[in-house]
Model the fold of this input.
Amino acid sequence: MKNVTLASVSFLVVLLAVTPAVSRGESDAELARKTQNPIASLISVPLQFNYDDNLGPNDDGSRFLLNVQPVIPISLNPDWDIISRTIVPIIDLQDFPVTGNDESGIGDVLQSLFFSPKKPTARGLIWGAGPVISIPTASDDYLGSGKLSAGPTAVALKQEHGWTYGILANHLWSFAGEGGRAYVNATYLQPFLAYTLPSFTTLGVNTESSYDWRAEEWSVPINVSVTQLLKIGSQPVSLQAGLRYWADSPESGPEDFGFRLAFTLLFPK
Done:
């Protein structure tokens, strides 16, 4: 865990060191604001790396997770957009679910579609809602549910005076898939709070909690992060470093602390 912490701190130092590279134009301020909106009209390609350990019955397992998460807005008409959010997980498990068992490959793909008004409401509320589907693409049984699942998803947020706050949620029920696998009945809740500084540095906190109604178990990671908008040449990108504390998890789930590093390509209109 010591090496993990050192890597996270080193990344954060580099992230803050490149802050002056960002231009101070109004378009950058708008872009920094959009990066905190899950349903902004902005094409982005986040590469999110996560590490957690203390998995398994003996707490000697670990998980490396790379989420590739393209976000693509599609204009329906002058008033409405569809925001496509896809999560493709690439997973490496070490000594999980038991010591000596190592697996790596692709997990289940999660596809969400949000129907969202182009403009906030009169009270400044930004919202979107639509379907979500989990596709059993996992390359190994340990990396996915083996079930085709679907349900509703929604997000609501406000942005004012540098603050962004809101919640993203979904629920999945399985309706097809491998007969021998457990059915899926799970709720996901992601409340979030962030503040963007004039330097386009964003300090954020969220949880990415899920509740398994079948097993009656919570997973509650609390994430704190710092995100920096900058430009590499003319290409805007954002870098993020964060720490995670597992407030609750299933019996063989991760414990204590983990970390997250993310690199996001941004393609403003």
Q: What stands out?
A: The longest strand covers residues 217-232. The chain has one domain: 2-267.
